[in-house]
Design a protein that fits this description.
The structure is a single chain. This protein is mainly alpha-helical. It has 9 helices and 3 strands; from the N terminus they run αααβααααββαα. The chain has helices at residues 13-43, 48-75, 91-111, 122-159, 162-176, 185-209, 212-226, 252-255, 265-287; strands spanning 113-117, 231-234, 243-247. The protein has a 3-stranded mixed β-sheet with strand order 1-3-2, covered by helices on one side. The termini are close together.
């Protein structure tokens, strides 16, 4: 059997830093352009569901074009070396993608709460579903993983080592979620811890599979279910969400504080469980060669 190896090509510190900065710029520009174009189309009378779909496709397409240019012209590496090969997903990570939000929901239901369902008109329902599935779900998951676990992790790994490549983007990923959020100190700490651990999970999946597509699908489906507006779990119902599970226990560790259930101890525990799975699979892969 052919041995799977990680790329050992090194980058200069200048080229690595430049790649990291430009990758963030690519993400920001792709997001602004995709949302701006979809808004223009909406103002011309295009249905919001179609505009959401176009925004999602544009977000991914513009990011991949930008990253392709960045890798070829600036970093002088192939997309595959940054763990961005042709699309292919391993079945184990597809199952994890489906099971992870279900596991979190089941834990919260055990703690106690009640369901509140909002019925919207057809246009609002289509808008919510397309936004959740195509933009905030799949598109955002793919883009963030291509940038953080593709370019940034790849640059740091080539400049330092895989441990640094996993840890720094994960902490950065968690810290960036503070931007635009009004959080107290405890909620901020809780968010950084949760964001860093889930970032490590995504990094381990990319390392185990040597492809960002696996962590992108896990990230995307999580976003689709948990933050897109289809399902909301919290201490109060969200009027914009279709399905709400309202928690009876308001303790900040359980509810995730000001940020929400993604930073809860239940979510953190779930991230940690699948981190262990990723580590086991990595060790198993290494023993096979």
């Amino acid at each position: 059997m052919k041995k799977i190896t990680e790329s050992t090509k090194q980058l200069s510190i200048v080229r690595a830093v430049t790649g990291i900065i430009l990758s963030i710029v690519i993400l920001v520009i792709a997001q602004i352009l995709s949302l701006s174009i979809s808004e223009i189309l909406f103002n011309f009378g295009i249905p919001i569901a179609i505009c959401n779909s176009i925004a999602g496709v544009l977000y991914v397409t513009l990011t991949l074009i930008g990253v392709n240019v960045l890798c070829g012209r600036v970093l002088k590496v192939s997309m595959r070396e940054m763990r961005i090969p042709r699309f292919k997903v391993k079945s184990v990570w597809m199952l994890v993608a489906l099971f992870m939000p279900i596991m979190v929901l089941m834990f919260f239901m055990i703690t106690g709460g009640y369901w509140e369902i909002h019925r919207f008109d057809t246009e609002t329902t289509l808008s919510t579903v397309t936004s959740a599935v195509l933009f905030y779900g799949l598109a955002t998951g793919i883009v963030e993983e291509v940038i953080f676990r593709g370019v940034i992790m790849g640059c740091l790994e080539k400049q330092f080592n895989i441990q640094i490549g996993i840890i720094i983007p994960s902490v950065l990923f968690g810290a960036l979620h503070i931007i635009g959020s009004s959080l107290d100190f405890i909620s901020t700490v809780q968010l950084v811890i949760a964001g860093s651990i889930v970032g490590i999970l995504f990094s381990l999946i990319a390392y185990e599979s040597h492809s960002v597509w696996n962590n992108a699908i896990v990230h995307g489906i999580w976003n689709m279910v948990m933050i897109g507006g289809i399902l909301h779990i919290g201490t109060s119902a969200d009027s914009n969400a279709m399905f709400n599970f309202v928690l009876r226990n308001k303790m900040f560790l359980l509810s995730g504080g000001d940020f929400g259930i993604e930073a809860s101890v239940i979510s953190i525990f779930t991230y940690f469980v699948f981190c262990i799975l990723a580590v086991v699979l990595i060790k198993k892969r290494k023993k096979s060669y």
